[in-house]
Please model this.
Amino acid sequence: MSEDYRSMWTDLGLDLEAHDALLGVLGPAYQDIYLAQKDRPEGMGYFDFVMSEVHGLRIKELLDEKKAGRKIIGCYCVFVPEEIALAANATLVGLCSGADFATEEVEKLLPRNTCALIKSSFGFKLGKVCPYLESADMIVGENTCDGKKKAYETFKGLVDNLYVMDLPQVKSEQGRALLRSEYLRFKAAVEALTGVQITADSLRQAIRTVNAKRAAVHRLSALRKADPAPISGLDALLVNQVFFYDNPARFTASVEKICDELEARIAEGTGVFAEKAPRILVSGCPQAVPNWKLPLIVETAGAVIVGEESCVGERGARNLTDDSGETVAEMMEAIVDRYYQVDCAIFTPNPDRLAHIEEMAAAYKADGVIHYGLQFCQPYLMESIPVEAALEQKSIPTLRIETDYSMEDMGQLKTRIEAFIEQLR
Ligand code: BJ8
Model:
């Protein structure tokens, strides 16, 4: 950290010793995993800076926003509409949940066989190491998978500002009506929190701001179709992770800048991996910061990840919201339309997701798909079996992996992934 933020962290109630321990692991890991890569786009320097200041400058900015009267809302799912938060003078940040922390304490509250993502969200709270969580004026939970919806019942006792959003599990007329009514309820809750009434102008502006950042990542994704790949999967994943907590306009500008650079690389025919390196599409559970385990193994084995069918990736960012409505009601409907298309595995049935995986595999010219499932994640692990069967039927080699955040299975995963990559060569 370039400044001494310790008093800020103390004021937020962080456990400084535990927090030092967390940063003491993160810093060197980032160095070894990210900075050790070769031929990175220069534009990644911005993201390196963001990561080096992830608990420093960005938190200071959020606290400055709070002093100026804005509210901060933390969330755990891509179903929480950033457009509504922004339109009501609030900033939405993703609460990352990508590392194990305070596991012993967590397992006093949650069964051992709970997915790593849910355990991590508890660990960051119990260990008092997340300044985003502690800065938030409202924390939004959502009734998605069974693990999350039951865990929030307990999480409510750990924080005093949890808001739980109900979500449909079936794409039907009733499901859509539920989503609409929950977004209207959320809009009212955010307006009550900020004291700011959403207007047609503020909502349109918010939609445009969020669309711009999504469009920037779409541009980046499209450039990954090139062979040789102009950017590593590790770096592209980082961009998708930073998407959730950076200032939206600055993030958009930084991604556009990288895209300009990647276009020049593609024109010169240069890339980060050799031409014809095996190309992998990753599909499955979200990989939240600092979960870089899978791309690290894949890319050190000589293959390149060219896309993520994931909420930290294309499932989360793929569609834009129509901004042509004239009234708040019309634009709220457009927001419902946009989010209703998110094909999370909590939906039953969920044929759109399989169609999207196939579409992505073709568009990014993937040689194979790795289905990434977190242990104990019923929705994605259940779907991984029919997904694998359907892809294999279309002669798309698929590897199903099931893992967690620990490093214990690194050796075993490496062996399986290397064998899979060999098969693709
Ligand atoms: S829209 S994927 S962000 S719910 S890994 S906690 S599903 S047991 S994260 Fe998700 Fe929203 Fe869906 Fe996306 Fe449960 Fe599975 Fe754990 Fe998961």
